[in-house]
Amino acid sequence: MYNTLLIAQSTLDTLPRQEITPENIRVHIIKAMDLLCDYEDVTEAVNLMALRQQYWLSLNQAPVSSIVDVYFNSIKKIWSVKRPGYPVEHHKMFVMRNPKFRVSEAGRQRVLRTKQKAVHAVVTGHMLEDVSICLMETWTKQVSYNPYKNSTFIEKLTGLPISSAEYAWFTGQGVFVV
Prior knowledge:
The protein is of the alpha+beta class. The protein is 33% helix and 28% strand.
């Protein structure tokens, strides 16, 4: 696993300064994070997030964020991210600021009636390019949604409805909020 971290860092270190753009950082680090998520190695993923933050600081730029809709792709077992005007992206791990948890009641009723999966629940918010927020130790509330049991997203432990949060961390193990 440590080799993945070294490869990601050495790849970025070899790029000329003008080629170290937010998009290049995003591509190299996200690919390495996706590999680590396959092995569920949280320590290395956190190290990669710290590495990514280091490159952001070296660019002396503010992290870029955009408003996106996110849903779980049950076929690919990955998060699908829809940005207005762009093709759907797929990510295994990322952070969202000010997430709003939304369920279309008409879509939910259609799922209940037909017993077929359909995208009708999304999380809308700002997808952060700076994922250093994941270093926080307060990711204790896990969020889930099951149209057959609840009409809204809920906190998994308490069963209480949740409509928004300050931050949400999307991982292979679920969504965690703070």
